[in-house]
């Protein structure tokens, strides 16, 4: 790349330098010839006498007649043949030219003394400067260009190496990442340039991969842990019926196996939902009015305890309607299982936050348990006898949906009961 720039610059430099030197030489020769012509017109310079040299650098001077015969010369040009056969005209009385004699090459100017046909011609010249007479100029310029190209290449190599050093570091760090441990991150260089942005993108990708792998491991762990009990129960009942067919109550066996099957289906459905939440980045989102969502969900339910509502209109969030509906359903199911006489749902707006609250008058949740209940398959001892039909995943699903919608769900103080509050960014 440096050569593509410097070589044309070098060629242009040679051309310009030659032009400048030549123009300077011709300016001196022309001035000298014009001065001699002026002195001849003034009668101050007799023909045949040695011509004085006004400019030491222009020492070759000849005066010829109209036919080219030499009339006078300077001392330096005394033994030289005519310097040039160029004849300026009355219309073009000054001509700059170059001419090579047997011994040397010259740069000279020819000036017509008068406008008459038989006017003498003054020739003033000097030897062609060595810098342009030989290839010295080209050699010097292109040597400089070669040095500059080498320096530019070295500098580019150094700068590129320094700039790409973080990329090499990232490559080595990425080589250390494997499926068994996705917690490694690449080093993010300071600044906001493209390399720093690349490092941040790589770390974001690794974080997403780690979350995905954690979800898969969590799913496998949860499935193996929670499905073992109902499957073992089903197997035990069926083996017992196979061993003692005469003592088996078929209707009771079918009812029991159907209950276990229903529980298996509920657990699998919830586990699959947990695995999908947050992983479906392309899921279409829409504007959801929370008050409308609550009314629609309540209209499809047949709860044993009536639900009181206090719904502020126009509280809108952006999200996946089915997932937000699942959060509401899980909170209502949880409230119905634990409530004594009252379940209440509120929707309000607090600044830029949409707030959905579900309360019940059941057992109050201890402060130390208010985070633990959002863990998977967690049930509080006080609620085991009342918590029939739950999978232990409802609140975990609600927490994951809230996080995927850039919100949060918490259990908060409630005198004489439990209160769950979902907060989401309002639009």
Automatic annotation (TrEMBL):
<dbReference type="InterPro" id="IPR004358">
    <property type="entry name" value="Sig_transdc_His_kin-like_C"/>
</dbReference>
<dbReference type="GO" id="GO:0000155">
    <property type="term" value="F:phosphorelay sensor kinase activity"/>
</dbReference>
<dbReference type="InterPro" id="IPR003660">
    <property type="entry name" value="HAMP_dom"/>
</dbReference>
<keyword id="KW-0902">Two-component regulatory system</keyword>
<keyword id="KW-1133">Transmembrane helix</keyword>
<feature type="domain" description="Histidine kinase">
    <location>
        <begin position="222"/>
        <end position="427"/>
    </location>
</feature>
<keyword id="KW-0597">Phosphoprotein</keyword>
<dbReference type="Pfam" id="PF02518">
    <property type="entry name" value="HATPase_c"/>
</dbReference>
<keyword id="KW-0472">Membrane</keyword>
<protein>
    <recommendedName>
        <fullName>histidine kinase</fullName>
        <ecNumber>2.7.13.3</ecNumber>
    </recommendedName>
</protein>
<dbReference type="InterPro" id="IPR003594">
    <property type="entry name" value="HATPase_dom"/>
</dbReference>
<dbReference type="InterPro" id="IPR036097">
    <property type="entry name" value="HisK_dim/P_sf"/>
</dbReference>
<dbReference type="InterPro" id="IPR036890">
    <property type="entry name" value="HATPase_C_sf"/>
</dbReference>
<dbReference type="InterPro" id="IPR050428">
    <property type="entry name" value="TCS_sensor_his_kinase"/>
</dbReference>
<dbReference type="GO" id="GO:0005886">
    <property type="term" value="C:plasma membrane"/>
</dbReference>
<keyword id="KW-0808">Transferase</keyword>
<dbReference type="Pfam" id="PF00672">
    <property type="entry name" value="HAMP"/>
</dbReference>
<dbReference type="Pfam" id="PF00512">
    <property type="entry name" value="HisKA"/>
</dbReference>
<feature type="domain" description="HAMP">
    <location>
        <begin position="161"/>
        <end position="214"/>
    </location>
</feature>
<keyword id="KW-0812">Transmembrane</keyword>
<keyword id="KW-0418">Kinase</keyword>
<dbReference type="InterPro" id="IPR005467">
    <property type="entry name" value="His_kinase_dom"/>
</dbReference>
<dbReference type="InterPro" id="IPR003661">
    <property type="entry name" value="HisK_dim/P_dom"/>
</dbReference>
């Amino acid at each position: 790349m440096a050569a593509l720039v410097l070589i044309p610059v070098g060629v242009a430099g040679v051309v310009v330098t030659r032009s400048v030197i030549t123009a300077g030489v011709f300016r001196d020769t022309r001035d000298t010839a014009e001065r001699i012509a002026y002195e001849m017109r003034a009668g101050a310079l007799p023909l045949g006498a040695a011509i004085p040299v006004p400019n030491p650098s222009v020492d070759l001077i000849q005066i010829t007649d109209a036919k080219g015969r030499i009339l006078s010369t300077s001392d330096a040009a005394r033994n030289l043949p005519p310097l040039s056969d160029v004849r300026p005209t009355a219309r073009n009385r000054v001509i700059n030219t170059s001419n090579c004699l047997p011994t040397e090459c010259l740069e000279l100017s020819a000036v017509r003394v008068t406008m008459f046909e038989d006017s003498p011609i003054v020739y003033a010249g000097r030897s062609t400067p060595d810098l342009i007479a030989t290839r010295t100029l080209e050699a010097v310029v292109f040597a400089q260009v070669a040095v500059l190209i080498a320096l530019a290449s070295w500098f580019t190599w150094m700068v590129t190496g320094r700039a790409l050093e973080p990329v090499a570091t990232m490559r080595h760090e990425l080589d250390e990442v494997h499926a068994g441990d996705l917690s490694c991150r690449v080093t993010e260089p300071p600044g906001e340039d493209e390399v720093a942005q690349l490092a941040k993108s790589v770390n974001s990708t690794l974080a997403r991969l780690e979350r995905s792998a954690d979800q898969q491991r969590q799913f496998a762990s949860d499935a193996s842990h929670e499905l073992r009990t109902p499957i073992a129960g089903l197997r035990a009942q069926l083996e017992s019926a196979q061993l003692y067919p005469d003592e088996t109550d078929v209707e009771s066996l079918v009812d029991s196996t159907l209950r276990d099957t229903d529980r298996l289906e509920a657990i699998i459905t919830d586990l699959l939902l947990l695995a999908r939440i947050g992983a479906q980045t392309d899921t279409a989102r829409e504007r959801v009015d929370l008050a409308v969502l609550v009314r629609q969900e309540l209209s499809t339910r047949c709860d044993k305890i009536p639900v009181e509502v206090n719904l502020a209109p126009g509280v809108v969030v952006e999200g996946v309607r089915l997932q937000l509906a699942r959060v509401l359903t899980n909170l209502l199911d949880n409230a119905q299982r634990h409530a004594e006489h009252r379940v209440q749902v509120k929707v309000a707006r607090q600044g830029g936050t949409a707030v959905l609250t579900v309360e019940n008058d059941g057992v109050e949740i201890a402060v130390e348990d208010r985070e633990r209940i959002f863990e998977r398959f967690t049930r509080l001892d006080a609620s085991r006898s009342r918590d029939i039909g739950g999978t232990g995943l409802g609140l975990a699903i609600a927490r994951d949906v809230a996080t995927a919608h850039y919100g949060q769900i918490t259990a908060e103080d409630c005198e004489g009961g439990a209160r769950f509050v979902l907060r989401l960014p309002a639009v």
